[in-house]
Amino acid sequence: MNTHVVDSINGTPNWWYMAYYDGGWPENNNFRMDHYPYKDKMTIRIERSDSLRLDGVYAAFAEEIQRKKDNDGQVILPEVTITGKTFRLIFNDVLVVPHNLRSDTFQEDVITAMDVIMSLADQSKITYDLQWYDSIGTAGIVRSYWLERVNEDQASGKCGFVYETGTKHRGSYNHIHIPSDWRVINSPEYGKWFWIELGSCD
Questions:
Q1: Residue 191: which of 109, 95, 57, 63 has the closest Cα?
Q2: Which end of the chain is more exposed for a tag (fewer CB within 10 A), N or C?
Q3: Angle CA 135–137–140, to nearest 5
């Protein structure tokens, strides 16, 4: 599964975790605990979980690793969709390569969700802009790059792109608030970026 799990605590099995960054909130997730980068003012809670849910999460992890093996060690996403304010794009079998955008955090050639966007641009399928944020709103500690533009659609005010990635049949817990330049990926089944409007689009 390419991860460590909490097998037991004091002999009791079936543990999972909840985590969120400064300014965030508790959210269910299907993300490898040892891939979740730490930030100051972060909240982490270990809690008991249902064994059937954990079996499903672990099966999804194993599927990712098998997919990577089947692709000779390459990260190839079967499907990537980008839905902007004015367009919808679907790409199949997207080869993702590392760009080392966050060499301050990760070892060389670690692949993140942001590498999906950057790889599509390398392949001349989209154009994009990134923007660095030290903080956003009530989140005092962000310190990440965010996707600000894809093709003609430019984020502004409270309108812009969010994303999720993972295994489709576990999709409800794939949309979590880890910035895409900090979200390590193994070989997910899909990636999805989509436009949201949470208020005024200044």
A1: 95
A2: C
A3: 40
Domain coverage including residue 158: 8-197
Q: What are phi and psi of 165, to 5 degrees?
A: -160, 155
Task: Check which CATH number belongs to the domain holding 164 and give it.
Answer: 2.170.130.30
Please give the backbone phi and psi of residue 41, each rounded to the nearest 5 degrees, phi first: 65, 25
The string of pLDDT tens digits covering residues 3-40 is: 999 999 999 999 999 999 999 999 999 999 999 999 99
Query: Is the CB of residue 176 less than 8 Å from the CB of residue 29?
Result: yes
Backbone angles phi, psi at 69, to 5 degrees: -60, -45
Owner of token pair 């050639």: 109
Residue 1 counted as domain residue:
no
- For the chain, what is the domain count? 1
Residue type present at position 151: N
83 strand-pairing partners: 88, 194
Q: Which uninterrupted H or E stretch holds 78?
A: strand 75-83
Cα–Cα distance, 29 to 176 (Å, whole number): 7
Residue 176 located in a structural domain: yes
pTM strictly above 0.90 = yes
